[in-house]
Inverse folding.
């Protein structure tokens, strides 16, 4: 026996605390012990490079062994080893004093710690009733030693027969910790924590970790396939990533990593991060919510930085200056990468835009610096027929049914006909009548149809104070209206204009007091009637619905524009001028038909706006049959 003694710690009850529940995750002991083995190997290499020892054909490795009968789990490394003095110093003093410090600091804290990292050697006592160290230092003439401690401050240190340089830590597992005798469980732990450690880890002679951490390699040595393969490895059975960003810096903090834009899934939880946090290739956590900017949370991949404090609570982490700078750095790099893709491969950029747009717009709304980076590269689908030539941001064949444009380019084109006014649609199908009407007049319409756009438009209006955004169904642009035609006098007896006659008919037969009836002579292929929802009111309604997470109700108060130039409306006026309608109080066939037609024209306009509820749909269909029957009955009118 070389020595027997008491570990000098002040908190006598440190062992029960460690054992019980310093962490609910007992398994982290494994990461700590394997990391110590890797450190010991790195230290040996450094000593070797310094010429202090002959490394020869050094094959670094960590070997894990399970003995079910003895209930032991051993972790061996062929690293630097320890002399008796070093065991006394590093294990009895350093390890346990840091243990004590740790316990004092975090005992009773109800905040979960980010990585509960650096627990160190003593974390072995979370799962073991007895811990032994068998070690031989690399130093010449070193004597191998064997240290034993059974979960009390007493330890023993004796010489050992060991002849191989390195260290073996042998845990005799406590009751209830049998899972660590199962090779599958050990494989799982290696995969989780040690997969990318730069040393071969063997179980039953087989190497079970990947070792290669591609985020540490130079980006210039990696191909697209390398990045994709790594993504598949991290997130098996997922769709291919859209884009990746390789992060590498060593000033003012050390950080390596690869971030991927995943293909957006409809059920994605944008408040949760699936990014993996590492510290020197050792896995720490799957939760990076406090580290990366909120708008980038859906990004996946790996961040590896020894400068992220890991034994602090999540709230403290958020306040940490370095962490905030890291967040800014990541956002900047993501912005750079997006700009690069926009400039160098616009076709690809436009192709993945539907998935990127949410990230980018959300970032635009939440981060001033990021906004500056992306505001010129936010693109929108447009109705404009543009060729790729000469326009940097325009669609090229095969990307999408509609071309894309930036807001600035849109405004530039709009200068002549509608300076500083942006026509937009939020639903290509529901608003198709309106879109076509604009298109036929040569007015360009942007599609702002994602759920974030309601919000986004108001931000754009703040950033472009002269520009007004007008949804296609908000109002009629003067270029859509033929003012002379509506004012034409069509009834010489009463001196009434076409407009006035149509107004009268609809007021009398539609019977919708909350609907404002407006008449206009619309150009070209405009339908007989359209519904308008004033921009400001509609937005208010949309915002309220968004906040209450409900679908916006269609407002009872709206404007019905009757197109006096449409043949159907013209026919209706002629029909009403038959004289019977206005004079007769009864239900003449002509009167009935006029009423049905008014109602039908209104329903057609409604249908183009919002679709029907079941009741309206039924009455629409019934009326359609009635009208058609009537029109086909010989001599009915
Ligand atoms: N396998 C090993 N080979 C050689 N030395 C070791 C080994 N394991 C532990 N040591 C020594 O014991 C010391 C204390 O280890 P411990 O794991 O408690 O803390 P640490 O590794 O220094 O830091 P951390 O708190 O980050 O784990 C180490 O610094 C090292 O000098």
């Amino acid at each position: 026996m070389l020595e027997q003694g008491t570990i000098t710690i002040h908190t006598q009850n440190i062992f029960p605390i460690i054992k019980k529940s310093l962490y609910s995750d007992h398994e982290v002991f494994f990461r700590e012990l394997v990391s110590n083995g890797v450190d010991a190997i790195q230290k040996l290499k450094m000593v070797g490079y310094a010429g202090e020892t002959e490394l020869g054909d050094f094959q670094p490795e960590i070997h894990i062994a399970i003995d079910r009968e003895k209930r032991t789990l051993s972790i061996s490394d062929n690293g630097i080893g320890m002399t008796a003095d070093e065991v006394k110093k590093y294990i009895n003093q350093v390890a346990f004093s840091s243990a004590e410090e740790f316990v004092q600091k975090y005992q009773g804290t109800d905040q979960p710690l980010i990585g509960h990292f650096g627990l160190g050697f003593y974390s072995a006592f979370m799962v073991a009733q007895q811990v032994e160290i068998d070690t031989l230092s690399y130093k010449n003439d070193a004597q191998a030693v064997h240290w034993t401690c059974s979960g009390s401050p007493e330890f023993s240190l004796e010489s050992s027969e060991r002849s191989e340089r390195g260290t073996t830590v042998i845990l005799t597992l406590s009751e209830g910790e049998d899972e660590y005798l199962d090779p599958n469980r050990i494989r799982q732990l290696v995969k989780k924590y040690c997969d990318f450690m730069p040393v071969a880890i063997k179980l039953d002679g087989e190497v079970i970790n990947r070792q290669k951490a591609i985020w540490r390699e130079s980006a210039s040595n990696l191909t697209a396939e390398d990045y994709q393969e790594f993504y598949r490895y991290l997130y098996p059975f997922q769709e291919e990533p859209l884009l990746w960003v390789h992060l590498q810096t060593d000033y003012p903090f050390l950080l390596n990593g690869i971030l991927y834009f995943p293909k957006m899934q409809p059920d994605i939880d944008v408040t949760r991060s699936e990014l993996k946090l590492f510290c020197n290739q050792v896995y720490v956590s799957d939760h990076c919510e406090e580290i990366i900017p909120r708008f980038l949370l859906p990004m996946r991949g790996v961040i590896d930085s020894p400068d992220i404090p890991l034994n602090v609570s999540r709230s403290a982490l958020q306040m940490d200056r370095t962490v905030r700078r890291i967040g800014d750095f990541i956002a900047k790099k993501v912005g750079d990468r997006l700009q690069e893709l926009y400039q160098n491969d616009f076709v690809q950029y436009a192709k993945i835009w539907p998935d990127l747009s949410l990230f980018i717009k959300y970032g635009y709304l939440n981060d001033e610096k990021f906004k500056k980076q992306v505001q010129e590269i936010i693109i929108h689908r447009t109705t404009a027929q543009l060729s790729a030539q000469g326009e940097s941001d325009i669609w090229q064949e095969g990307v999408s049914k509609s071309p894309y444009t930036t807001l600035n380019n849109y405004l530039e084109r709009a200068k002549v006909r509608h300076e500083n006014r942006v026509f937009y649609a939020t639903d290509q199908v529901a608003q198709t009548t309106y879109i076509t009407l604009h298109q036929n007049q040569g007015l360009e319409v942007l599609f702002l149809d994602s759920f974030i756009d309601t919000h986004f438009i108001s931000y754009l209006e703040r950033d472009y104070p002269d520009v007004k955004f007008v949804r296609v169904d908000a109002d009629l642009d003067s270029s859509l209206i033929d003012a002379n035609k509506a004012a034409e006098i069509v009834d010489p007896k009463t001196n009434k204009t076409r407009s006035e006659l149509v107004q009268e008919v609809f007021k009398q037969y539609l019977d919708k007091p909350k609907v404002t009836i407006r008449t206009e002579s619309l150009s070209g292929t405009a339908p007989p009637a359209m519904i308008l929802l004033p921009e400001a009111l509609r937005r208010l309604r949309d915002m309220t619905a968004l906040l209450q997470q409900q679908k916006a109700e269609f407002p009872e108060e709206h404007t019905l524009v009757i197109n006096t130039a449409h043949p159907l409306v013209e026919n209706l006026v002629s029909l009403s001028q038959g004289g019977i309608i206005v004079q007769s109080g009864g239900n003449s066939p002509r009167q009935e038909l006029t009423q049905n037609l008014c109602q039908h024209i209104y329903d057609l306009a409604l249908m183009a706006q919002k679709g029907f509820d079941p009741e309206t749909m039924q009455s629409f269909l019934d009326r359609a049959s009635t009208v058609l029957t009537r029109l086909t009955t010989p001599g009915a009118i």
